[in-house]
Every structure is written in structure tokens, then in C-alpha cells.
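Dear colleague,

Following up on Tuesday's group meeting, I ran the structure prediction for the two-component complex that the binding team flagged. I've pasted the input sequences exactly as they went in, so you can double-check that nothing got truncated or mislabelled along the way. The C-alpha cells for the whole assembly follow below. Feel free to forward this to whoever is handling the docking comparison.

Inputs:
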Amino acid sequence: MSLQHALLGVLEARPMNGYELTRFFDAAPRWVWSAPQSQIYPTLRQMEQAGLIEGQKEIRGTRLKRTVYSITEHGLEELRTWLGTGHTPAPVRDSFSLQALFFDMIDADRAASVLKAYIAEQEQLITEWRAHREALLAKDTDLLKERLKNRPPAEHDRIAGLKANVFAGQVAVAQARVDWARESLRLLAEGV
Amino acid sequence: MSLQHALLGVLEARPMNGYELTRFFDAAPRWVWSAPQSQIYPTLRQMEQAGLIEGQKEIRGTRLKRTVYSITEHGLEELRTWLGTGHTPAPVRDSFSLQALFFDMIDADRAASVLKAYIAEQEQLITEWRAHREALLAKDTDLLKERLKNRPPAEHDRIAGLKANVFAGQVAVAQARVDWARESLRLLAEGV
């Protein structure tokens, strides 16, 4: 289950409590994996039971207790095994392409306005992913800064470059979608 | 729920029984929506209860009965409403990008072999989508042939062109992924 691996990958940078993890995922629609709070807490408990992470109660002030989770050796091993394994691709379920496949059944104007909203949404993602890519290249995200503390300085550029490249890929895919949507607008207008 | 809309879109071409629909979805990993048999049958029953489709028992030979489903006026209206509405985009959950984001944690050789398997899988999709696109442009898929029987001949080229363009988009996205994966291979090799 990928949420577990997303959490392991984040916790490898530094220990965090559930609230911090929820905030990280909330702030990360431009990231590669989304998860609502309702999934994060139960998954953390399962992962703790499975020995992938370890919770430690943290006392703040006089009463507030939060559980801070850190990755265990076993969790690190599980993450590395998953990373090095080729996985069966997820089944193709592309809701927007499904919608576009039947655009001939509605007025061209309505189809065009759906396409324009899609273009705006993809362009927003491009802006956010591009900014995130640049922050990674500049080694200027909170998580990357923490993570690099435990890595040899000689590897910092390569690590930042590999991570930034993932978001360059997201941008390229979103750009291919925008180009396709513009071509669809042209085709829709053509035949009316 | 998109499976309902996928089923409505397919049944708009012609009435089909559950077995034919299952075969359609089984043969369609290169399509835009995958669904296992275990989802198709219960969804058809729900859709029948909701009046979106209508089942008719078909007697074949002396005893075999199959329910043949056709789309109702209400189903057609629901499909058109869905098609003309901009929907909230699905949350970003890109399992492969998540994996790639942590490639710095494993040997470059292992990461490279995962990337190579990914390239092969995307290239396979490209081959299938490209073939499907050409079959649509040639108006030579079973479903499109059925569908065009109920459309004015003057619209046939436009309908085929719009549908084919959806698969041109799928090809472009998969190609962007392949290009990205090749760049990642280069980056992985560079720093070792």
C-alpha cells in the first residue's frame, strides 16, 4: 500500500507526529501522493503494530502528549525493498479521458468549457510542481534540508537532482495533457 | 462514480449483457477505464435499480437466459449531464513517482532496472493506444461501428476524430513518462 511507503519516505527525513504528517500531506497536493487525515492516523497505528515505525510520547508543556513517530530499521528495510522492486502498474482509470471520449454526445460549447477548466487545473499543477522542483534544486525545502543532514555532502547535489527530476516529470506529463486539451479544443471547434 | 459513466457510455453504442461488458473491459487495459468483473455485475444491478439502464431477459436456445442491458432516457440524460460538468480532479496519487522520489536510497543499478521495466510498460501502452487510435480513425472498432449507425453520416468523421484524439493524448502522456524515465536513467548513472 503506497501510503505506508509515502509515510516511511517522509519519516526517513525526520521523526514527526501525526499532526505534522497530516499538515505535510495537506500542503502537498503538488506532491506525488495525497492522503486525507482519516487515512493517516489509522495507517500510522498499523505501521507501528507492524514494527515499521516506532511511536514515542512527547510531553509538551505540562499535559499535552503527542506521539512522535520515527522509522525503524525494519521500516527502512521495507522501504528499500519496495523501492528496488518493479511493481505491477496500477490499472488505467483516467476519469477525464473517459469524459473526453464521449464529448461528441454534448454541445461543443459545453465540452469546450470542461476542457478549459481542465487546462486551468493542469496549469495550476504545473506552476506548483515547477516551484517545488526549483526549491528542491536549491535544496530549500524543509524535508530535504532535514534529510541531507544524514547524507554525505558529496551526495547532496545528486540527491537534490534526482528528487527535482521527479517533479520535472510531473510537469512534462501535465504539459502533455495541456497540449492535448488545446488540440481537443481545436478539433471541437472545427467540426461544428 | 466513473464506472457507471463508463458503462453508460459503452451501452449507448448498443445493448449488451454482463458477460459482453466484462469481456469489453477485460480486453480494454489499453482503454481509459479498467474494471474487474467483481465490480461490473453489482454496478449494473445498482444502475438498473436507479433506472439508468434497463435489463431484458434474453432466451438463447431452450434454457439459457441472459439479461441484456440497454441505456434508458434517464441514463442518457445522466451521462450527458456528467459529460458537460467540470469535475474536481482526482487527488494526485502517482505510485511510480513516489517510488522514484526515493531512488537515492537504493543502489543505482536497482533503481535503473525498475526504471527500465517502467519504460517497457509505458512503451507497451503506447503501442496499444496508438493501434486503438488508428482503428478509431479508420472507424474500425466494433463499438464505434455500432455507435455510428445511430449518428448522421455527416458527423462520422468528427466523432471518430474526437475519440481518436483521446488516445493520441494517452500516447503523448505515456511518451512524456518514457522521456522522463530516460532522463532519470541518465541522472542515476551520472552521479555514481
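Chain A touches chain B through 73 residues (CB under 8 Å).

Cheers,
M.
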